[in-house]
Amino acid sequence: MGRITIPTDLLDTLKDPATLRFFLYCLTQAATEEGTITVRGKTITLSPGQLIFNRRKATVELEDYGLSERKIRTALSKCVASQKVSQKITTITVINFSTYGVIASESVPINVPINVPTTEYKTGKAIDASIISNSKNTTKKRNTKNIDKHIKLQPYIQRVFDHYRKTFPTFGRTVRPGHKEWNRIGDRIKNGYSVDECISAINGNSVDPWYRSKGLHSLRYIFRDTDLMDRFILTWQNHHQPVISEKAKRGAQAAHAWANMKEETL
After folding, report:
1. Which of 57, 74, 230, 236 could form a disulfide with 200 if both were Cys (CB 3.0 to 4.6 A apart)?
2. Rounded to 5 degrees, what are φ and ψ at 188?
């Protein structure tokens, strides 16, 4: 597991949660030692604290934290303005990177010993299978995580998901049939919610003041459980009701009372 040291003044400088989360993302993605990387056929040398930044890739990786592409663009501008990072075309440099004491867990492959005896390769001795388990030539294992639990509900889930993507274009780009967020929609439909109610929940999340302020529009926030579903559905229903002033309410009550009195006299 990696580790990052956060100076206390950083919390005072980056008070916006989205900006702080983006800066932490830069710390975890930055190179911890000098090395080279090939981007579009061009070899680039990265020093410690530098990373190649791709806004769309960052949006996909940070969407579960409520960071849209627009928020990432704003967060990057704030980090540059506060002199926490600098940007040159696609390269971002974390200023004073060494002060954060970043220790990346990926610096040593999981199954490779820290000190691999090099003599074993030269003498032809048997190599432990655990040493080569991370080899590039190893056949990729079939992805068994994305299993569609609701195959029969696919047409209904697709209708809900299409509306979700239309409502939040920057969210859900990586969701496919069998994805855990896809299955969340199926879970709620299986609970008895109709397609229209699921769509109302999406609309309710889009107008809910608290969730809008936090940018929490991922599928896991909308379809997490039935209580949240009911909240968003009710929010959307109330959103369409006309706003009646207190004076109009009193007038309606008086008219209703007068009508009842006339019926009694007749």
Report:
1. 236
2. -70, -40
Burial track 203-219 (b if 16+ CB lie within 10 A, e otherwise): bbbbebeebeeebbbbb
| Prediction pTM value | 0.44
pLDDT in tens, 27-40: 888 888 888 888 77
Range of the domain at 35: 8-105
Total structural domains in the chain?
Answer: 2
Considering the domain boundaries, does residue 34 fall inside one?
A: yes
Contact 104, 32 (CB under 8 A): yes
CA distance 249 to 125: 90
- Average pLDDT of 147-160? 88
In a domain, 115, yes or no: no
Q: Are residues 29 and 96 in the same domain?
A: yes
Helix H, strand E, coil C: the string for 42-63 is EEEEECCCEEECCHHHHHHHHH
Structural domain contains residue 112:
no
CA atoms within 13 A on the CB side of 223: 28
Q: Is the pLDDT of residue 240 over 90?
A: no
